[in-house]
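Thread: "does anyone have the structure for this chain?"

Original post by V.I.:
We have the sequence but no experimental structure in hand. Need at least a predicted one for the grant figures.
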Amino acid sequence: MPTHPRPTVRRRRLGGEMKRLREAAGVKMEQAAERIGGEKSKISRQENGRQGISKLEIEALLDLYGVKDQRLKAALTTLAREGRRKGWWAQYSDILEERFQERLAIESDAARILVFQPLLVPGLLQTEEYGTELIGSAEKDATEEEVQSLVSVRMDRQVIFARDDAPQYVCILDEAVLRREIGGPAVMADQLQKLIDVNNPPKLTIQIIPFSQGWHAGLDGHFSLYSYPDPMDLDVVNLDYLDGSLYLEEDGPVERYQLAFDELRASALPSRQSMDLISHVARDFKKRT
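Reply from O.Q.:
Generated one for you, tokens below.
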């Protein structure tokens, strides 16, 4: 049975709007499919965001739905074009797994990103040296050139914070992240200093859950939660496992992770005290360089 890729944010938004317009016009899927010379299943895939819609198909369907608003027509056509636009990571498609390209697409459109990480500094906050050590250790069969390309991808991701529409980013780290020595004392000292340098609440906030907290809501593992500016778009939770990724969009599971993140944030030190703890650990590493 053929499979279709997970919908991108733009495709999902476009499909949802086309479905709303069709239903408002009282048009059945079969009628819409006939207008564009396709099957009912094609309309279903388009409205679910799992298949793109061409400019000609949009024009034909909007005519069928009786849509006269030229601004709406132009907006939907633009959305369709953007949905086909390749992301900056396309240049690395030969070395990036499809699931990671999917992560980058989800990340690039988010208005808010909430991250909990109990083990490692997240990629969006890593220094080049820290990232190189992690990637080189994980990708044992990769050539030096491939490792450097993967590091370049990781560094390029961080440009997201320089955008005019940069997402709000809140990151909760377990204290273990600060103390787990990756790449040696000098690499760790620089990495911890970067966390201090980029911390800028409320736009980019880093908080630490200290060891003294004991049990907390994140001991089952790391996760990321992405939210979008359009209320039509569903929040997405990303969970990674050894050889894949899981994305949750249903209201129930997403709400549970939102509550878990709220609990984690309540367990964490305030941002200023978190910076004090990071500075303290960084000084210990510097003494050993």
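V.I.: this helps a lot. The chain has a mean pLDDT of 89.
O.Q.: and Residues 9-84 form a domain with the 434 Repressor (Amino-terminal Domain) fold (CATH 1.10.260.40).
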